[in-house]
Structure formats: C-alpha cells, structure tokens
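Consider the tokenized backbone below.
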C-alpha cells in the first residue's frame, strides 16, 4: 500500500495560507503600510512649527483642537499641565514622531515647550567619550 503524505495534510495548509493572506490584506487596508518616522527636524524646529499652529498664550482646549486639526496628536501626562505631542500626520501621508511637550500654566494657557524625551547617555564617571587614555 502506497502512502501519500500530501493527502494526510488535507485542506489545513490551504486554510492557514488563506488566513495569513487575509491578515496581510487587512493590515494593509488599515495601515497602508505607512510607517512612523522620526521627524526630520530638530527639537527647536519642531517646537517652532507647533507654536505656529498654537502660539504661546493659547488656551489649552483651543491649542489641542488646533493641533488635532493640523494632524498632530498627543496625550496629557498624569498632570493636566503637560501635553505630549506624539505624531504628526502630514498632508503628504507621512507620519512623523515628534519630541515636543507643551507646558500649560495653572490658568490653562500655553507658556512653554520642552523636549518630550530627555537625551540620556550612559558614561562611566571620570570617562569621556572625546578623550581616551592611552596604554
């Protein structure tokens, strides 16, 4: 009696293939394979662009609304006085990851921007990355 390995698998591999393909199609439809890239602007330039949309002195609700209308999304921290700008959906379809936090006074007006993420580097005490001791 001859054994046919292909027949024992049955339609299971086709079902798995169909499932994988449908997942890829669904993800493509949802995301369009658009990736989020770091903003090609340094913090000062990002901050200036954001302040063009929501100038200093703008009330909190109005600032968030104006940013959302411009395609910039974000969230408040645990404190309602700091709003972190996360993504900027640009008109050309690109998505920029931003590094800007907006600071609001107690009266709710925008008074300052700062980097959302601190620059952290690890360096042993007494060592410098610019000078190395020779043996």
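A designed sequence for it:
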């Amino acid at each position: 009696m001859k054994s046919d390995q292909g027949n024992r698998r049955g339609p299971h591999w086709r079902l798995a293939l169909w499932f994988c393909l449908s997942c890829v199609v669904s993800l493509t439809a949802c995301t369009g394979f658009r990736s989020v890239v770091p903003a090609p602007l340094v913090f000062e330039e990002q901050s200036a662009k954001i302040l063009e949309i929501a100038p200093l002195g703008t009330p909190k609700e109005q600032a968030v609304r104006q940013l959302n209308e411009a395609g910039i999304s974000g969230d408040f921290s645990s404190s309602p006085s700091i709003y972190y700008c996360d993504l900027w959906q640009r008109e050309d379809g690109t998505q920029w990851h931003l590094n800007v936090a907006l600071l609001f006074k107690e009266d709710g007006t925008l008074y300052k921007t700062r980097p959302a993420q601190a620059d952290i580097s690890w360096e042993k005490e007494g060592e410098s990355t610019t000078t190395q001791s020779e043996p």
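Confidence is low (pLDDT under 50) at residues 127-135.
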